[in-house]
Amino acid sequence: MNAKDYIELEGTYGAHNYHPLPVVISKAKGVWVWDVEGKKYMDMLSSYSAINQGHLHPKIVKAAVDQMGRVSLTSRAFSNDRMGPFLKMLCELAGLEMALPMNTGAEAVETSIKLARRWGHMKKGIPEDKGEIIVCENNFHGRTTTIISFSSDPDSKKGFGPFTPGFVTIPYNDIKAFEKAINKETIGILVEPIQGEAGINVPSPGYLKELRRICDQKGILLIIDEIQTGFARTGKMFAFQHEGIKPDILCVGKALGGGLYPVSAAVSTRELMSVFKPGSHGSTFGGNPLACAIAEASLKVLVEEKLDAKSKEMGDYFVKRIEDLKIEKIKCIRHKGLLIGVEFKLGPGETVRPICEKLMENGVLAKDTHEKTIRFAPPLVITKAEVDWAIERIKGVFEAV
Ligand SMILES: *Cc1c(COP(=O)(O)O)cnc(C)c1O
């Protein structure tokens, strides 16, 4: 079978809920992937930042293989010897106290919403049928029925109602709107430190700090979704650390599994987590020993290889190299660390999809995020020589736009 055959087969038996670039990957290592014909590409998407440690990092693969020779799944009906050490490391890196392990990012967000709501009802005295969580326009927090209920993207939402109530939407990066939206039924705010899916939307410096201050003043919760921005992607272990604050609840996922396995968690304080009692929430696979072994190894790689500092250094270098190309059609570049959005000046209805297709033909895999922006988010293990390799190819494609 060739690439065309695989694409056809996938399109025949797989639901069309994505519009992938026409490349069929069959092998990967570090920042590189190979297609079925053996052509090499640089992965500049990292599965939406789920592969910060690089494809098949040997230490993470070893942890997985070792654990598969011991025990993979116990369920939470019993304890296992991998969950405690992993959660301790996760809590310490986040500067928080307790975590609830799940599998996908959406589940971490759902867990955080349940945690916040229960706290609102049990500790804050908000009536059971009331309570509001404030969210931001153009948010992306996942795909469950409740989460899409507060999406502002019609593609994610249309036809999936009726929706879950209890959410109030305000503009992103707007402190005044936040203050105005708070009332006696407000439980807290759920926010991304940088809106990844909205086009690498970086808020003004001090935004999170202001949110923290107001939440403290009003006695409501700051819930930060770092599923995409976490684990060194933006140059710090977590993006909230750029502003020297801490959330009350942190949602993590994606790179927590090192690109090998879905691992996510809601991380919080002991006081908040105490609202969960046996039976109130759970997951068959959440906290399984294989996931925990992989996640702990994934965290260790981030720390040992100082991928936070590397992300900052390579991110700044990459952006400087693109700026130096002086491409007339680039409108602006938004970035923090290796989470980079390059926005183009295009006509109405035009998108960057054809540019991404050209990049692909030239060996660089990057994807549009929002119509006019290309996201560059390579694995954080990328070297300077590898950035240079990519820039050579990006240059030709961008100059032809
Ligand atoms: C990817 C993502 C999610 C959802 O994670 P899944 O593993 O796809 O469920 C939630 N929030 C943000 C910010 C994300 O980038």
Features:
401 residues; alpha/beta; Aspartate Aminotransferase, domain 1; Aspartate Aminotransferase, domain 2; seven-stranded mixed beta sheet; four-stranded mixed beta sheet; 14 helices; 15 strands; binds pyridoxal-5'-phosphate
Notes on the structure:
- This protein is an alpha/beta fold and 401 residues long.
- It has two domains: 3-56 and 306-399, Aspartate Aminotransferase, domain 1; 58-304, Aspartate Aminotransferase, domain 2 (3-Layer(aba) Sandwich), CATH 3.40.640.10.
- It is 37% helix and 17% strand.
- The protein has 14 helices and 15 strands.
- It has helices at 3-13, 46-49, 58-68, 83-94, 105-122, 145-149, 154-157, 175-181, 207-218, 270-273, 289-304, 307-324, 353-361, 384-399, and strands at residues 25-29, 32-35, 40-43, 98-102, 132-136, 167-170, 186-191, 221-225, 249-252, 264-268, 330-336, 339-344, 364-365, 367-368, 373-376.
- A seven-stranded mixed beta sheet has the order 4-10-9-8-7-5-6, with helices on both faces.
- A hairpin with a 2-residue loop joins strand 1 and strand 2.
- Helix 3 packs antiparallel against helix 11 (289-304), helix 4 runs parallel beside helix 11 and helix 12 (307-324) packs parallel to helix 14 (384-399).
- It is globular and about 60 Å long.
- The mean pLDDT is 98.
